[in-house]
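User: My instructor asked us to take a sequence, write out its structure as tokens, and then describe one feature of it. I'm not sure where to start. Here is the sequence I was given:
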Amino acid sequence: MSIVSIEPATAERWDDLENLFGPTGAYGHCWCTFFRRRAKDHTASTSCERSVRGVDNKEELRRLTLDGKVPGLLAYDEEGPCGWVSVAPRDDFIRLARSRSLRPADPTEPGVWALVCFWLPPRRRRRGLGSRLLDGAVEYARAGGARVLEAYPVDTVGGRAPSAEVYTGTVEMFQRAGFTLSGHHLSERVVARLELKTE
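Assistant: Let's start with the prediction itself. The structure tokens for your sequence are:
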């Protein structure tokens, strides 16, 4: 598999992002808005007919993108868009600040970006694309002036987990990329952090 490029999901690439996520909106009609919206605003797939289709979530991601708020990065190969990673300043992900299991120890720490989600179509998985997207996210955060990139991977030691459970990435892939891993201060989750040296 040859990756041509990893690019910011700008307004001009909205159609690519929409087509990549497809009719299910990536994972369960989320449209990668779970961490960007308050719980009461995020439409779960069990709420109502409108929510089943994830319409509100899609509209939120579309609004953000078309308003110039880059919500993440798209990977492209010779066939078109083939992967996604959500990375942005940590403050953009308002649900992190409210989460019991992922709440930052210091929510006012400056210069922290967060990586909260990967999405790969089933036929693109287990080919190293997630690691390439991670590398692209590191470089994008560094270019954006981030001092630290933070993520919340899942430990899959002892067996594989379903893809929908490892959307935040795996401990192993962040270890390989040089991140420092530690336990969350309030929960059993793992926090991965990489100090970035900006030019």
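For the description part of your assignment, you could build on this observation: The first strand starts at residue 3 and ends at 8. Try explaining in your own words what that tells you about the chain.
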